[in-house]
Design brief:
It is a single chain. The chain contains 12 helices and no strands. By secondary structure, it is mainly alpha-helical. It has one domain: MetI-like fold. The longest helix is centred in the last third of the chain and has 35 residues. This is ABC transporter permease subunit. Its main location: membrane. It is a multi-pass membrane protein. Keywords: Cell membrane, Membrane, Transmembrane, Transmembrane helix, Transport.
């Protein structure tokens, strides 16, 4: 007779999750309300203008902050989302990704700078980042759903967590690779640490930081489709609906709209940084 030894992590995690939901319910509810309020405000602001007006605003902003080609590209990508009949879902996705990326960068950037300057922090973060980038993306949704139920809140929290590792890694790499002679020159000239950071370190690290930002955006958009499985709405829900109903047209349009948004955000960020520091970027 063969004896099989089975190990179920759920037997150990379930009591911990129950304890958290019972004793920290108020905290999770408060976080949910804050996330819903912020996300709702961003969505409301983006959906307030007429689609044509919104496209015009983005085109003008792209022309001002980037260049003419990026402005034309933005118009084409947004027009595709509009005429594909997925405007509201596209705006919901843009809002979710924008909020998630901003929070991910706000967490990852200072941690990356700290890790580049403090070896112990870098050594402590390295195994954590290795694990985070090895775990499949849908696994992040499981604890988020357990703690925050279904909806947009677990989706955006999972997206934030999923987007942190690439930005953190590349921020650390960018500041580790800074030429020491430039830093010594800044110190010798009497520049303050603030001036060195904003006038020497950030411009020099801009290309690598840009790669980290792009990776963070792409990771966040990759989570969008999975987020549709937990009721996050947006284009992810349209992809899920197309798959579940075997509607190839809907699934294809939603998938192409996600690609369009990914390209749009990538070109906008790249174009803006190229315009402000063209000699620093590839």
């Amino acid at each position: 007779m063969t004896t099989h030894i089975q190990f179920s992590p759920g037997d150990y995690l379930a009591p911990a999750v129950d304890w958290l939901n019972t004793n920290l319910h108020g905290l999770f509810k408060g976080i949910s309300q804050v996330v819903e309020t912020v996300l709702g405000a961003v969505e409301g602001a983006l959906l307030a203008p007429h689609p044509y007006l919104f496209i015009g605003i983005v085109v003008v902003a792209a022309f001002f902050f980037a260049n003419k080609r990026v402005a034309v590209f933005a118009a084409v990508m947004l027009a595709f989302c509009l005429f594909a009949g997925l405007w509201i879902a596209s705006i919901q996705t843009i809002a979710l990704v924008s909020v998630a990326v901003l929070i991910s960068v706000a967490i990852a950037f200072p941690l990356g700078v700290l890790a580049a300057r403090v070896k112990r922090v870098d050594e402590a973060l390295l195994p954590i980042l290795n694990i985070m980038q090895t775990v499949p993306p849908w696994v992040y949704l499981i604890p988020a759903v357990m703690l925050f139920s279904l909806g947009r809140v677990p989706a955006i929290i999972a997206t934030i967590v999923y987007g942190i590792p690439p930005m953190l890694r590349l921020t650390t790499l960018a500041f580790k690779q800074l030429p020491k002679d430039l830093l010594e020159l800044g110190q010798a000239s009497g520049a303050s640490p603030k001036d060195i950071l904003f006038k020497i370190e950030l411009p020099t690290a801009a290309p690598t930081l840009l790669v980290g930002l792009n990776q963070c955006i792409l990771m966040s958009l990759a989570m969008v489709v999975l987020a549709g499985l937990v009721g996050a709405g947006g284009l992810g829900a349209e992809v899920t609906r197309g798959l579940s109903r075997m509607e190839m047209g809907l699934g294809l349009r939603a998938g192409l709209a996600i690609v369009a948004i990914a390209l749009l955000l990538d070109r906008l960020s790249r174009g803006a940084l190229q315009r402000h520091s063209p000699s620093k970027l590839p």
